[in-house]
């Protein structure tokens, strides 16, 4: 089986292959539709291929995340944190249902692992390195619209740490975000989206969404929980206490260094 989002993207395959028409995808990212079209060109069933591909992607995500964490943590802690991070309900569902989450997670982790290895652990900011970062960014955006925010965070990190000159940073960041900008321009060109964009209720919607994502910070500490989602005030307390604790630890370490 597959969730509704996946079915919408799979239904767009015929239009893509016959007329190169992506309009049926609507607001969804086009990455899954593209890879499903490739499967169909190879005379393979896209749904079955995606279904059997997902367990391997889960294993790939575990391996990438574990390798990242063990560079800064002991192996046993890195293993437990990786296991906790990948035991959420969303990923467990991907074992018996085709979902977009595990595919997009794999693309994002590949991007983060490459940047960690080549920009943080070992500074190798060559033309080939930047090209691969751009390609991985495009792939991440094609499979998940929200990946653009992770890429913006990566760009902020690169800017703060002076990994590029200002002119190079502007060029690289523009190219990295290009697929997301193009997709947004096409999607919000629709009349309904334009009305929502200029509506009076837009600021409240933005604040609501921001608060919702801010409260998801609890998933850094605990596995995803439907029960916890029903108690937003408790999530808020956990988030605030966690941030205060992190600030305290950071200040304490700075005092020790002095």
Explain what this protein looks like in three dimensions:
There is one protein chain. The protein has 258 residues and is an all-alpha fold. The longest helix has 26 residues, at 232-257. It contains 14 helices and no strands. The protein is 74% helix and 0% strand.
Q: Can you lay out the helices and strands and say which pair or pack?
A:
Elements: H1 4-11, H2 13-19, H3 31-41, H4 46-69, H5 75-85, H6 89-93, H7 101-121, H8 127-143, H9 147-160, H10 166-187, H11 191-197, H12 202-215, H13 226-229, H14 232-257
Notable traits:
258 residues, mainly alpha, 2 domains, 14 helices, 74% helix, 0% strand, globular
Task: Provide a compact summary of the structure.
With 258 residues, this protein is mostly helical.
Content of β-strand: under 5%
Q: Helical stretch count?
A: 14
Largest sheet: none
Q: Report the mean per-residue pLDDT as an integer.
A: 78
Provide the gyration radius in Å: 20 Å
Shape: globular
Distance from N terminus to C terminus (CA atoms, Å) equals: 58 Å
Count of discrete domains:
2
Q: Could you spell the SSE succession in H and E letters?
A: HHHHHHHHHHHHHH
Transmembrane segments: 47-66, 98-116, 128-160, 167-188, 231-249
Organism: marine metagenome
Keywords: Membrane, Transmembrane, Transmembrane helix
Protein name: Glycosyltransferase RgtA/B/C/D-like domain-containing protein
């Amino acid at each position: 089986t597959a969730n509704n989002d996946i079915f919408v993207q799979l239904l767009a395959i015929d239009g893509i292959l016959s007329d190169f028409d992506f309009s049926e995808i609507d607001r969804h990212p086009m990455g899954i539709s593209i890879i499903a079209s490739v499967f169909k060109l190879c005379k393979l069933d896209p749904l079955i291929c995606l279904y059997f591909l997902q367990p391997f992607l889960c294993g790939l995500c575990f391996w990438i995340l574990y390798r990242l964490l063990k560079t800064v943590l002991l192996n046993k802690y890195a293993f437990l944190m990786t296991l906790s991070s990948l035991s959420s309900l969303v990923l467990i569902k991907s074992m018996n249902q085709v979902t977009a989450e595990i595919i997009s997670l794999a693309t994002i982790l590949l991007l983060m692992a490459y940047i960690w290895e080549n920009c943080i652990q070992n500074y190798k900011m060559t033309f080939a390195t930047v090209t691969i970062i751009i390609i991985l960014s495009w792939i991440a955006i094609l499979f998940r619209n929200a990946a653009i925010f992770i890429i913006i965070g990566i760009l902020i990190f690169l800017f703060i740490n002076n990994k590029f000159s200002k002119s190079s940073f502007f060029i690289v960041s523009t190219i990295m975000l290009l697929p997301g900008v193009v997709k947004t321009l096409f999607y919000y060109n629709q009349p309904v989206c334009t009305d929502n964009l200029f509506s009076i209720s837009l600021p409240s919607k933005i604040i609501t969404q921001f608060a919702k994502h801010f409260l998801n910070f609890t998933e850094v500490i605990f596995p995803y929980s439907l029960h916890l989602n029903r108690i937003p005030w408790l999530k808020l307390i956990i988030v605030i206490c966690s941030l205060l604790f992190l600030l305290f630890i950071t200040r304490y370490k700075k005092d020790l260094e002095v």
